């Protein structure tokens, strides 16, 4: 059977290299990075066979025989052969696959978790757990099945909830515990609504997390923002979300995270938290007052697809309050960027951008100027293409409404078919 073809791209050329068939995973058909053998004697790449089993399959993908034992035995011989093959083809731009780190033993993880109850061992155990969690998806999956989050939340607030006076050495120790607990919680966001509701119901704890948003360490600030975001997203109560957003300095701290440059994770975490906040009406004016519109517009070109959608959804939400419309309309880059994004990122991003433009063009005071800016930026062409595209129905409705609103500002050669576009109500997304 002929080998597959790996296309390797370097700075000069594209070179096709034949990969031996037995170096490819039977599931993914890609070069194996961590070959492991199952009880039937077949070898697969670890990530592929783990995904196969995780989706409920109980048979060997190749032989279809039952997997009576789900142990995965590392195939060191095959891995070394693959590594040697990579080295021998390095001139074609193929990099040697690194030696994979072996998954942690579940008993070790349980042991480390038990040590979190020991004052003398908990800090070192936290560091070891964080190291193992970063090693592999397998380790993170194992840790997720354990009551790790309960332990981390307990450690995070133990010192804060205590009324006892501590000396400087003790304070330093608890600060390290706080940092390590936050770092692990960033890897294992809260998903249980009861945990989120419980934390959101403790104003003192939310205020403590808010105080960390101005910490000297960027990592601590971002990790605290990540935990706040998981609480906001996970709680089932709109009232609790509003209470969290009302914590003194919380919105300002999150907007500050969004403005941190040269730290991609801060941008990602910041927009997630700001979006979660903006889903609640009571938080929108606070976000605008804290400078969220300027923060979003200034970074709008830096988001990846998913985060760009989230950022544009946040823009549309903030435009639903007068102060938000005024702030976005007052920024010179808002309208050109929104027009440029239409049909460029995704259907959802297009819908949110059109919705934001519709809100901005509809305001009584600045709407006329915004409409002129939009037409000058080429919005008419974008909207005409949009209504003929296969985007969402809501995006088309918003585009049709905008086209009718802007019709008086179109050039004569642009309005010949303007009667084809009717006005429809804008649906909430």
From TrEMBL:
GO terms for biological process: defense response; protein ubiquitination. Signal peptide: none annotated. Keywords: Transferase, Ubl conjugation pathway. Coiled coil: none annotated. It catalyses: S-ubiquitinyl-[E2 ubiquitin-conjugating enzyme]-L-cysteine + [acceptor protein]-L-lysine = [E2 ubiquitin-conjugating enzyme]-L-cysteine + N(6)-ubiquitinyl-[acceptor protein]-L-lysine. GO terms for molecular function: ubiquitin protein ligase activity. InterPro entries: ARM-like (IPR011989), ARM-type_fold (IPR016024), ARM_PUB (IPR058678), PUB22/23/24-like (IPR045185), RING-Ubox_PUB (IPR045210), Ubox_domain (IPR003613), Znf_RING/FYVE/PHD (IPR013083). Pfam families: ARM_PUB, U-box. The keyword Ligase does not apply. Residues 18-92 form the U-box domain. It comes from the Eukaryota. SMART domains: Ubox. Its EC number is 2.3.2.27. Pathway: Protein modification; protein ubiquitination. Functions as an E3 ubiquitin ligase. PANTHER family: U-BOX DOMAIN-CONTAINING PROTEIN 26, WDSAM1 PROTEIN. This is U-box domain-containing protein. It comes from Stephania japonica.
């Amino acid at each position: 059977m002929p080998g597959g073809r790996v296309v390797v791209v370097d700075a000069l050329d594209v070179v096709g290299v034949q990969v031996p068939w037995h170096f490819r995973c039977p599931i993914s058909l890609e070069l194996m990075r961590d070959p492991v053998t199952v009880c039937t004697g077949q070898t697969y790449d670890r990530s592929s066979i783990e995904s196969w089993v995780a989706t409920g399959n109980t048979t060997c993908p190749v032989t279809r025989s039952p997997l009576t034992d789900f142990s995965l035995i590392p195939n060191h011989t095959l891995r070394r052969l693959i590594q040697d093959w990579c080295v021998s083809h390095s001139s074609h731009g193929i990099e040697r696959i690194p030696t994979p780190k072996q998954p942690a033993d579940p008993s070790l993880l349980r042991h480390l978790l038990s040590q979190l109850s020991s004052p003398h061992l908990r800090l070192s155990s936290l560091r070891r757990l964080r190291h193992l969690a970063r090693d592999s998806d397998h380790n993170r999956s194992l840790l997720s099945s354990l009551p790790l989050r309960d332990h981390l939340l307990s450690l995070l607030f133990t010192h804060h909830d205590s009324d006892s006076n501590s000396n400087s050495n003790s304070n330093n120790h608890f600060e390290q515990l706080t940092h390590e607990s936050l770092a692990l919680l960033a890897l294992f966001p809260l998903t249980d609504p009861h945990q989120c509701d419980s934390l959101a119901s403790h104003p003192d704890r939310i205020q403590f997390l808010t105080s960390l948003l101005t910490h000297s360490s960027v990592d601590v600030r971002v990790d605290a923002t990540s935990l706040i975001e998981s609480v906001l997203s996970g709680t089932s109560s709109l009232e609790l979300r509003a209470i969290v957003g009302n914590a003194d300095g919380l919105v300002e701290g999150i907007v500050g995270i969004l403005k941190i440059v040269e730290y991609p994770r801060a941008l990602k975490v910041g927009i997630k938290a700001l979006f979660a906040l903006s889903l609640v009406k009571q938080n929108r004016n606070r976000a605008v007052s804290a400078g969220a519109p300027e923060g979003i517009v200034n970074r709008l070109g830096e988001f990846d697809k998913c985060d760009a959608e989230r950022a544009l959804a946040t823009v549309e939400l903030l435009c639903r309050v007068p102060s938000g419309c005024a702030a976005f309309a007052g920024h010179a880059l808002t309208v050109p960027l929104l027009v440029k994004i239409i049909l460029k990122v995704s259907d959802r991003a297009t819908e949110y951008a059109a919705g934001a433009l519709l809100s901005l063009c509809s305001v009584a005071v600045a709407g006329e100027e915004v409409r002129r800016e939009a037409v000058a930026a080429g919005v008419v062409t974008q909207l005409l293409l949009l209504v003929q595209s296969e985007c969402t129905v809501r995006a088309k409705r918003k585009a049709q409404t905008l086209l009718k609103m802007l019709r008086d500002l179109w050039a004569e050669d642009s309005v010949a078919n303007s009667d084809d576009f009717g006005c429809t109500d804008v649906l909430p997304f």
